[in-house]
Amino acid sequence: MTVLLVIFIFHFTIHQPYSPVSASDPDPIQDYCLPSPHPHQCKNSSSLTVDDFIFSGIKHPGKFTDKFSGVPVSAAVFPALNTLGMSLVRADFKAGGINVPHYHPRATELAYVVEGRVYSGFVDTQNRVFARVIEKGEVMVYPRGVLHFQMNVGDSPATVVGSFDSQNPGSVKLPGALFGSGIKDELLEKAFGLKGKEIEKLKKRFGMKKEDN
Ligand SMILES: *[C@@H]1O[C@H](CO)[C@@H](O)[C@H](O)[C@H]1NC(C)=O
């Protein structure tokens, strides 16, 4: 009885905090599953070659906008990742470039600095910011669903590779989600204490056409 009680307590004090209900990508039920044109089916493996399992799209930086380039390597562009529960992103920064505050609803991210010096951080749900400059070879973790950001503070280019525990982490970029999505001006004005004209400016900057809500 005592032994059982000890096991019980051990189980619930030690293990329970680390074993909540499963909320990540499901475990695969086959070696791999490259999606076939038929819905919910995998390609016949006899049609696959090694090249199906290699992605060459991040040998070089992607297209830059505002000194920043981010290239996701998710299952959408690298179908071999389908069902495997992980993916990557390559991020390149020119001097001063930023990766705007954003979060990944479906994945924790491990960011590894391949080159450069990057101010990197996240904000927890108490609005506590955990941020500092990390440099080549250092790794920072951003917990799932938590707002995070990066900025190249060196005077040369920086490269970061992020890995995710989801084949499709998703990315919600705050500036665009708020000012490029079509939320009514009135709400944004109230939320941010801004005037209509200021909202218009932000909406223009983040890709919204003139007043289409
Ligand atoms: C996969 O393709 C091979 C060769 O074309 C064929 O013999 C096999 O029956 C196929 N398997 C399935 C599950 O369709």
From TrEMBL:
One of its GO terms (cellular component) is apoplast. GO terms for biological process: plasmodesmata-mediated intercellular transport; regulation of root development. Pfam families: Cupin_1 (PF00190). One of its GO terms (molecular function) is superoxide dismutase activity. Oxalate binds at N99, H104, E109. It catalyses: 2 superoxide + 2 H(+) = H2O2 + O2. The keyword Chaperone does not apply. It comes from the Eukaryota. Mn(2+) binds at H102, H104, E109, H148. PROSITE patterns: GERMIN (PS00725). Residues 56-200 form the Cupin type-1 domain. InterPro entries: Cupin_1, Germin, Germin_Mn-BS, RmlC-like_jellyroll, RmlC_Cupin_sf. It is found in: Secreted, Extracellular space, Apoplast. May interact with bacterial adhesins thereby protecting the reproductive tissues from microbial attack. Has no oxalate oxidase activity. Monomer. In the absence of manganese, it forms tetrameric and pentameric forms which show superoxide dismutase activity. This is Germin-like protein. It comes from Deinandra increscens subsp. villosa.
